[in-house]
TrEMBL record, chains A, B, C, D:
Residues 12-72 form the HTH tetR-type domain. This is TetR/AcrR family transcriptional regulator. Keywords: DNA-binding, Transcription, Transcription regulation. Pfam families: TetR_C_46 (PF21943), TetR_N (PF00440). The keyword Transcription regulation applies. Residues 35-54 bind DNA. One of its GO terms (molecular function) is DNA-binding transcription factor activity.
Length: 222, 222, 222, 222
DNA sequence: GATGAATGAGAGTTCATTCAT
DNA sequence: GATGAATGAACTCTCATTCAT
């Protein structure tokens, strides 16, 4: 015996196989470049079964987006301890984010590259997830601001713009880290944390942000 | 009277019309989502003429990428005065970049969103342009570092990673500024300049980077 | 009732229908003149199904050539008894050849007219089959020569050239017999056999080749 | 000085250039495979000029057929001396035929391969020319028959069928001689003359047809 | 007389999607 | 529950043909 012909599997399992195949195919070929044939083949099922379970290409893509978005936000949430100070929370969130995207490159490609370029029904889906993260970061920045010097608290809109920049930088660095060999998640997170917290100015003046516990987080390599 | 049927135009003019239409269509629909029919219609010509002048969909897309990449780098180069100090150069470059992308949203979409997701022949084309910019920013960071405190000069690899983060942040902010109404190029550039130069830490401690001339560049609104 | 919509047939049957339609269409219109639409219509199926089963126009044409070439050589081989003397073998081969081409005019047109004019991938396919036949005839001529007067055995090259002429004459006569009404296969074979074996000189001197069994094979009609 | 831009040529010359280009292109690509663009390019003129002079692709192809057919029949006619005995006339005709087709391979391809496979308006054009030649050969065979033994004169229909076979063999040998290197026109004509006049039987019994002294065959070279 | 500019019509091919079994 | 059979619609690309200059 063996799994040569593993027919008659419970629906949930089959569905997961299909989504796995779809995420991989959409992530590499894009929405239009991916064909239902290829996805069905990769999932090891017939095409009509894909339609029976997932209705249409649109629905299938949406299901991929939702699953991957949920997985990413869950991973980040799970990595952050909300009782810690803001900078520590940010550090942990970044670490979780870079780790998850590195481990799920196809899922990340679906979210970051493909869903955003394929047009409205899908872009909105991703936008919602992103908004959640940006809001979280905005709050973090606000908290840190209040906990810092009292002279000048950052107004909300300013904090939002900064959160946008920070999240954008993280997204770009994730793509860069996934593409460039030898750049682990921890290092990407370190680079960005330094950049964000100390700024170029601070870095050049020898005042880097210092990560917790593991004393040395090198900015790039060395 | 009336330009109802403005036929028979010199080749150069028609070609520009076609590229304009193609950039707009590719930018909004993506490479595969765009149809040559739609492009020809939008350009006001017949499909065969598009093929006569631009050869194929691939060639047309490549021509779009090249034109837009050249326009963007030209705009940034024109905006920067290489005799100024590094932070001023960065500021001017960002301003030029945000201004140009705001004025050419479709061109920017082609470069940033579509070309990178459509696969190798095209992604490489954009990668070359981006590399040029990243190198420029890396040098800027290096220069600033050498001009600052001598205690610790940033190593090249560190500067490169920071440049990557900075460029990535700029790219993301450009998309954000183009999408969010009421965020002009100047403000996007200001936010990013502050973020990069002072860092969140610096900002929260009331040490923002101060832009030249026009005394106050508020981070977000104001 | 009625077979108005006889859908859902097994693949093998559909494939044969498609090949039949393709042979007919290619035979009459030529490779380029035939459209996949027409072939699909004639086969009673939709175009995508033709592509699903036969891949491309090129592959479809190649499949036609192979099928018809195999059928023709099989028919000739089946008609010839290799234990008989050379002239009897030639007679039987010609008879089988003219009979088969008369019964499959479209297949013969594909092989003789269309495949040879459509360019290299296809011409080579037919050339191989023809070579087989020419070789067979060359051997026959050589055998007959050895069995005849010993004064002068035909050298191989001469036999090959004669075989070429004989096969060429047969091909031309096949087209003529197929086009001219009232010229049955048996008569075409008789004419050629006389021409080949006795030559014009022998015929005019009243020394025709005499076919076996059925005493009288008239040269043309009568 | 210099023919760099040899514009403004008399119509007759331009037309000949176009026909030359057309014969070459049609001969190699076939009617449908040849594009008016390629023909105009090869002729060194613009496409509208081709249309101005030759009206349409159909007309152009017809013009090619007519010109090449006229040239071929003229060459054969010029090679034959009608005062000689029948076998000598046949020999001279074959020699002229093989010589002309060897010297005009594209023209021969248009007549023999392309025009016959492209469908009715064109096939009829070639058929007429061929009929002329077949009739000529039929007469030759009849003459020879009457001049030979009186026992049995060949009936007309028999002579016609033999003429058909002879012409068919000649056509096939022409293609073979043009394709096979090292087979000059004289040899092809010799092979066929032997085949036709003596027959395989006669050849094998050592009674070949003997060509006239080489001296007075001025058809090809000398 | 000669041509650059332009197109209507149709070709091969692919794909998301649905029955009938 | 699962699939082999089948298709409507759309897409890229080409070609013969014609104006306007």
């Amino acid at each position: 015996m063996g799994e040569v012909k593993s027919k008659r599997m419970p629906r949930a399992v089959r569905e997961r196989q299909m989504l796995d195949a779809a995420v991989r195919t959409f992530g590499r070929r894009g929405y239009r470049g991916a064909s239902m044939d290829e996805i069905a083949d990769l999932a090891g099922v017939s095409k009509p079964l894909v339609y029976l379970y997932l209705n249409s290409k649109e629905d299938l893509f949406t299901a991929c987006i939702r699953r991957e978005a949920a997985a990413l936000t869950a991973a980040v949430r799970a990595g952050v301890d909300p009782t810690l100070p803001a900078d520590r929370q940010l550090w942990e969130g970044l670490l979780a984010f870079f780790t998850h995207t590195a481990e799920n490159p196809d899922g990340w490609a679906v979210l970051h590259l493909q869903a955003r370029t394929t047009g409205e029904p899908f872009a909105a889906e991703v936008h919602a997830m992103r908004e959640e993260i940006v809001t979280f970061v905005t709050q973090l920045i606000g908290d840190a601001s209040r906990a810092g010097r009292r002279d000048r608290e950052l107004p909300l809109q300013e904090a939002a713009a900064l959160a946008e920049a920070l999240v954008g930088a993280a997204e770009s660095l994730a793509a860069w880290a996934n593409t460039t060999p030898g750049v682990p998640a921890r290092q990407a997170a370190g680079t960005l944390m330094n950049f964000a917290w100390a700024g170029l100015g601070g870095l050049m003046e020898g005042r880097p942000w210092t990560p917790p516990e593991r004393a040395q987080i090198p900015v790039a390599a060395g």
